[in-house]
Amino acid sequence: MTRYQPTILLLACWIIGALLPNDLLRACESPRRPNLLMIVADDLGWNDVGYHNPHMRTPRLDELARSGVRLDCHYVQPQCTPTRVALMTGRYPSRFGRHCCAASNEQAYPIGTLTMASLLKSLGYATGMSGKWHMGSKAEWGPKHHGFDYSHGSFAGAVGMYDHRYRLKSPYVKTWHRNHEPIEEEGHVTDLTAAEGVRWIEAHTDPDKPWFFYVPFHAVHTPLVERDPQWQEMNKHHKSADRQLYAAAVSHMDWAIGQMIDALQRTGQRQRTLVIFTSDNGAQVNHGGGAYPPPDPALKNFSSNHPLRGQKTEVYEGGFRVPALVNWPGVVGPRQVTAPLHVVDWLPTLAALLGYENDEDPLWDGRDVWATLQDKQVAADPRTFYIVWGTNRQRAAVRHGDLKILRNRGKQWEMYDLSQDPYETTNLAATQPEKLQELLKIYQQQRAKDAVEARRTK
């Protein structure tokens, strides 16, 4: 394991500064090991941010995108638990078992698995989180067993915005906690999460002691409750009441993100903090209501992945191509990256950036994409992305280079050329059978790496 001291790095930069290009000089001016603020929205669709859609009111995200790196083709998994597993472990969720391939309250991966938090903790980072865990909905499977010094929020999935309970008929209904101890709080979940983030930032200002804070918002997952009129007022231009309610929740979350960015600025930490933002999957689009503590209204066409095809839990692009960005002033951006990336890339990227070394192979499915973020010349070898959704593999997809194959619930395989057909309108499976067979072989190679019980179903 390698550790770089900021003072040594800065001295080296001072000595050879005149010989360095400007980009490298700017990187040297920030600590070798920056703070990391990792923000994950819940169910935020492609068409649900202002920098993709002028009708959405997300000024803080728009500014982060404008001054940072917009990730135009950032993939996740089609649902919450699978994406969280991929983010934390750098591995596809099916590697751990079929229970990780859909929303689940089971223990996601064994204690002792290398996670983003445990890796950063081994490098001297303070580690904390506030929000939705959903990788094991009991305290004995919670964040502190996976590298987090501090945790706040729900062990389980979506909760009532003011109620803070999970599904009322579930054994995991009482889920709100601080450091694994049950607590009662008053307030909207988005506000409580923002306050926790601000408190963490204000309490960790020592430049020699970097921190990692993970913010998996419950927003903008249903149930949607927005009592503060300012969020509705910002979005009254939406004709649909359901869309207006959703847009209000998006603006509320955007404000919460801004509170944390302002805290970074106020405490002098903005320049040394790497901010990463993504959604956990595509928009849900429709909601039947009555699944969570009331009020939990039914909603129709309330969120959107337009112009992408598909939605949450599906393996068309709209299910797992999501808004995402990276922002680190003076080090990356502003630019737009069109190369395909995946949420499994973040752990190996951070490991390489921070000088992490380990004799054991972590079996990561992702790769270090830092050079891509800095717009450097990168080898043009095609990326392969592997998606499985459902405990019985109801949906699956592989993207290799520009070609993508997918299958929905036992139907025939479909194939699309995303370079020519990003909205998946023309199925090429019948007209290019040889290419289809090539990608099916890649699918089988990836499937062979899954946990045994995750390979048993078709």
Number of distinct beta strands: 17
CATH superfamily of the largest domain: Alkaline Phosphatase, subunit A
Helix content: 25-40%
* CATH fold-level name of the largest domain: Alkaline Phosphatase, subunit A
Q: Element order, helices and strands?
A: HHEHEEHHEEEEHEHHEHEEEEHHEEEEHH
Radius of gyration: 21 Å
- The CATH architecture term of the largest domain is 3-Layer(aba) Sandwich
Percentage beta strand: 15-25%
Structure class: alpha/beta
Question: Count the helices. How many?
Answer: 13
Fold and architecture overview:
With 458 residues, the protein is an alpha/beta fold. It has three domains: 1-32, no CATH class; 35-373, Alkaline Phosphatase, subunit A, CATH 3.40.720; 384-455, Arylsulfatase, C-terminal domain (2-Layer Sandwich), CATH 3.30.1120. The protein is built from 13 helices and 17 strands. The chain has helices at residues 6-16, 22-29, 59-67, 80-89, 116-122, 189-203, 229-234, 241-266, 317-320, 346-354, 370-373, 433-447, 452-455; strands spanning 35-41, 69-71, 74-75, 126-132, 150-154, 176-178, 181-182, 211-216, 273-279, 321-322, 324-327, 335-337, 341-342, 384-389, 395-400, 403-408, 414-417. The strands form three sheets. It has a ten-stranded mixed beta sheet, with helices on both faces. The longest helix has 26 residues, at 241-266.
